[in-house]
Amino acid sequence: MPQQRIRDLVAFISILLTTLGLIALGVRPDQIVGLATALGLLYSAWRSGNSGGQE
What are the tens digits of pLDDT across the range 15-46? Predict the structure, then answer.
């Protein structure tokens, strides 16, 4: 399995486990959706290597 696919799998499982943990703690669903979206966007930016500060 290529290393990039392993990273994608680890990121997916991490977000999934975080979501399940937050559900178990009683966090409201709308807050969980916001957090999962933010984590996905951060991972996407990290993966593409675009920091926004490049000229």
Answer: 889 889 999 999 998 898 888 888 888 888 87
17 against 48, higher pLDDT: 17
Query: Distance between CA 31 and CA 34 in Å, rounded?
Result: 5
pTM, full prediction? 0.63
Amino acid letter, residue 21:
G
In whole angstroms, what is the distance from residue 50 CA to residue 14 CA? 22
Secondary structure, 3-state, the chain: CCHHHHHHHHHHHHHHHHHHHHHHCCCCHHHHHHHHHHHHHHHHHHHHCCCCCCC
